[in-house]
Specification:
The complex is a heterodimer of chains A (about 425) and B (about 425).
Chain A lengths: L1 E4 L4 E7 L5 E6 L6 E7 L7 E4 L2 E4 L4 H9 L1 E2 L2 E2 H8 L2 E6 L4 E7 L3 H13 L5 H19 L2 H13 L13 H4 L4 H11 L5 E7 L3 H11 L9 E2 L12 E6 L5 E8 L8 H16 L4 H8 L8 E7 L2 E9 L3 H18 L3 H18 L3 H13 L7 H5 L4 H11 L5 E8 L1
Parallel strand pairs in A: 3-11, 13-17
Antiparallel strand pairs in A: 1-2, 2-3, 4-10, 4-11, 5-6, 5-12, 7-8, 9-10, 14-16, 14-17, 15-16
Helix pairs in contact in A: 1-7, 2-3, 3-8, 9-12, 9-15, 11-15
Chain B lengths: L2 E8 L2 E7 L5 E11 L5 H11 L9 H10 L4 E9 L2 E11 L10 H14 L3 E2 L2 E2 L1 H17 L4 H13 L13 H5 L3 H14 L1 E8 L3 H11 L25 E7 L4 E8 L10 H12 L5 H9 L3 E9 L4 E8 L4 H16 L5 H18 L3 H14 L5 H10 L2 H10 L1 E10 L3
The chains are: A alpha+beta (about 425), B alpha+beta (about 425).
Amino acid sequence: MSKAYSNLNEQMQTHTLENGLRICYVPKEGFSKTFAVLATDFGSVDASFTLDGTRYDTPTGVAHFLEHKMFEDEDGNALQKFSETGASPNAFTSQTMTAYHFSCTERFAQNLEILLKFVFTPYFTEENVEKERGIIGQEIGMMEDNPGWQAYVGLFEGLYRSHPVRESIAGSVESIAKITPETLFTCHKAFYSPRNMALVVCGTADFDEVCRMARQFSPHESPAIGERHYGERRDTVNQPLVERKMQVSQPQFLLGFKDEPVKDGESRLRRGLLGELAVRILCGDTAPLYNELYEKRLINPYFEADYSLYPEAAVAMFGGESRDPEQTRTLIEQEAARLAREGVDPALFARMKKAVYGTHLRTLDDPDALARAQVQAMFGGEDYLDFAALFDTMEAHDMRAMFARWARSDRTAMSVVRPQ
Amino acid sequence: MQQITRKKLGEGVGLTCVSTPKFKRAVLRAALLLPLGGADAAQRAALPHVLRRGTVTLPDLRAIGQTLDELYGARIEVSVRKEGETLVIGFLSDVIDERFARGAEGLTGKVVRLLCELLYNPYVRDGAFSPDYVAGERANLLDRIAAQKNDPRAWAPKRLTEIMCEGELYGQSALGTTEQAERITEKKLYAAYQRALDEAHIELFYCGGMQADAVEALFAASLPARRADKLAQLGTKVIASPKQDAPREVTEELPLTQGKLSLGFRTGGNCLTGGDPIAFFMFASIFGGSTNAKLFMNVREKLSLCYYASAQFISLKGIMLVNSGIENDKFEIARDEILRQFEACQKGDISEMEMESARKTLTGAYQSMLDEPIQLEQYWLAQAVADTLQPPEERIAELKKVTRERVIAAAQQAALDTVYFLKGAAQ
């Protein structure tokens, strides 16, 4: 299927293979490089699942461990195969997906073949799993020394009681000690089924050829995927304040508003855009409250605001460095309550909407970011480029409804990393 | 496809234009180039932050923020960087191309005017900056200096550079010192600003859909005339070999889980302006520049010593850094393995496959850069600082010609200068 977006001067082609693999191509005229990502709708939060009638509670960090191990095949490591063509390969695991990608300026077909082959071919041995434990152990050590990441993990501990988004993506040295080749095979079987995956190519390619190769190098069978368990859901937070001590020069904090998860039938893409607009209105770097906090020296240029969606969870986050995280929190919470009560000034709403639109338009220049956004959208049954049309449906009362949800009692948690 | 134009807009004012229709946004830079370090260092680091607080027509953050929102969320970010031994302070901006929004005519022109206003027409009262703005940004700078230790992955190479390049301008921080920062006042800063305007070379950059003449006209309309007699001398002193007889080894401690190991090498004079830089880029890539490199294959994949170990050629200064994160008790093993791989390169243990892989990796990186305006900005800034103005396409052509012999020769000219180990102390 082909869709044109004349207002954005973009187009995309999509196709779903018989085995359920979703494929999308966004041409980028004039670009030197082509970016391809093959992703599975399987992230760190999907560690507990039922497959073929058996319940599995796999160790924390298993999706990320699997990501590391997928590169290895019987005949060597895919990273080196990519390097030989000059491509730049990488992968990431988030709470919601595991994605394998490369960008290249030549020999696209050869690289696409490498990508498809290694992601669909599990090869795990006692020995190569053991070796990876050492490397991932060092990656975890690196994360543990990162105060921003520690604040992030702390926030989710505060917001959620049992939802697996509480756990650090890579797990801990202790949790990954329990991962065996068998665990990895089970997870691959449960979630690397073509019907749970998407391939997005952005740049210069022949769409028919991409589909033909995907058909050739993906499994014909498309087994049922695991049924996921996210624990019992609660609307209120687990713990309003989570504190840690680390090597930092001043406190780092992250304040989170626990929002309602995306409902059945609700557009995930639209919710994400509304959330982005709401965090910008509440305390984005051009918002009235941001200016006030900055002038009071409660925050500095390293302050950030973000809105994130997870399966059965949604969070608005605000954080950075502050001499007084408690006072900063109070002022942000008060502003959310005021916006819920009084609504958003129409002029402010209009200008913020314009600004968020500009942010997304700029994403179109970045094939990597565009492809990742499209993968996420496809997992929700949508297309990212529809964002422009969705902007026309966003109204000030949507904002007010969102702030009203945030402003209810026991919906915020704060994580603070304090100097030792 | 991409039209590169270099223009001189007056005394000490250079404009680099990359004109291409393929992007939906424009990226711009307006920056002052000054010698790194010196008595004004902290003031210069604080300066763009104070300028960003208010102008004659937009006196505070509210007014600036509102204007940026109306310009479809255009961004104007403060930038304080060192490029070789040159300090670069100013603003980086991006704005959507006016073709893609209703009623957005003249967007780029408005951003250019705002950039120039931030640089030349700040909010001033009684011959000084606003005391509130200066107090706030002085505190932010002090916080920033203290916060550098928070990120051990950046702190280790920074400490290595300070130790290795002690007595050289490159050993100094772009942020200045705490003592300097504490002494900043609104009057002193305003005077430092006036000096900076006299002494600085100004580098402007544009990447987007407009042609160079049109961009030049936009900037020309907003830039004041300036004199040439006070312009500072810019340049980077490249030290070809270690100053001491044997490599130095320094260990420091912080309360961390993971140790950070950084090694600093001199390059035998290979740098952007001398020697055989393209051969050295190839050597650094084979040694530690990709997932096919010796460091990745051996230190990470074979010995599982680390998550990352990579080599970086700082071509303006003519040094190479190797950075890695390791377990605290693996310092000797990791150091020795890194040096074993270094020596292997020097002995000529470089296969044809490694040569071709590095050539393709670097070629791919330069070609990909043509798609990334922010990377193009960095590339052309380094070119302007070095006064080389070599387009990436020329580098790609040179890569085709580099021989294995030249790469081995480049490796043989490199020498270990300093080993720095940031040890995670028991908590």
